[in-house]
Amino acid sequence: MELAVTNGHVYHDGRVERASVGVRDGRIETVTDDENLTADRVVDADGGLVIPGLVNAHTHSPMTLFRGYADDLPFETWLHDRIMPAEAELSREDVRAGARLAALEMIRTGTTAFADMYFHMNAVAEAVEEAGLRAALGPGVLVDEDDDESATAERIEEVAAFAAEYDGAAEGRIRTMLMPHAPYTCPDDVLREMSSRAAAVDRPYHIHVNETVEEVERLTAAYGTDPVLHLDDLGVLDDDAYIAHGVHLSEAEIETLADRGTGVAHCPAANAKLGAGMAPVDALVEAGVPVCLGTDGVASNNSLDMLEEMKLAALVAKARDRDATALDAGTVIEMATANGADALGIDGGRIAAGEPADMIVLDAGEAHLTPSRELLSHAVYAATGRDVTTTIVDGRVLMDDGEVETLDAKQVVADAERAVTNAAWP
Fold it and tell me: Do the domain assignments include residue 424?
């Protein structure tokens, strides 16, 4: 075998047990109680918790450059007066610098795969390939009210060309998605066309929906029905589609999502920070809607730490419903791993024979993770990204003992600082 992770407590098949994981050709070959498993490279988990790599199902990675920028503002002011004008100033090299910074942060905090919606996505793909991560990438499509039909058609063709060119890049670690930004930035014909393009290449369709009360009220008035029901009338909702946010959903919308098998990427930190509210996650899970987890962009979260996102998801669900049993630790782990992989249309999110060898190790020896008898609970309620010691993607060690092996961390940070220093933002 090329790699063995030994001496760990491994989460697989819904339970945690002492085990070793053997990897061959980038995939898990065995999960065994053999503590002396041999391989070309052996990673000693040192009694830590080994779980599937975390999957960030909704983010905008280059927005790491906006960390701390435009904080504590109302959503509309934040988005339209500060973020969008700042984004208009970003060059391709700025986007690459931000994506590389995001990749470094994700490796360090245990994210092994992510879905990214942005622009200059070929620069993001370069960062993904260099870092060794897995990603599902798609340029976001927004239609300006001044755009004519030919400009819109050209933009859709560009997006389709990116999807065709980059799907399967980076030795298969990069897949593509079709991502219209939102119903309020894309007319119905664009939403339908992009859904048709996604179906033609058998890739997921992803879109922001029902994030704020104001958005829902405007769209409901325009459509004469709930936004999700309108999307369903357009025929764009199926089990290859998933929405981001879904904060304000009616019972009819939840039922429709469940009937169509359409998932929701829950982003609790961003929704809380921007005052959008809290999605009815427990109700979605109970209805059978596939729910995954995302950080959203750093401008609306300030970090890409999926372990912190897991804790927040569990806590706000309990607080929202005033029910301590809502969204238990096991459910949250699945949201952040297997459900995320399913949403992205990739293998993974599970530690099992035949699955891609994407996994992380959490140090179980820290004071805040002791005693060690409830490690799965600790992963959700006590751990943060700083507890990740090892990150592995496709059988390749990206970080071990806290040392990132695929990126020059100092250079990545310096390049990001330089991009911001030279920026001319409002």
Answer: no
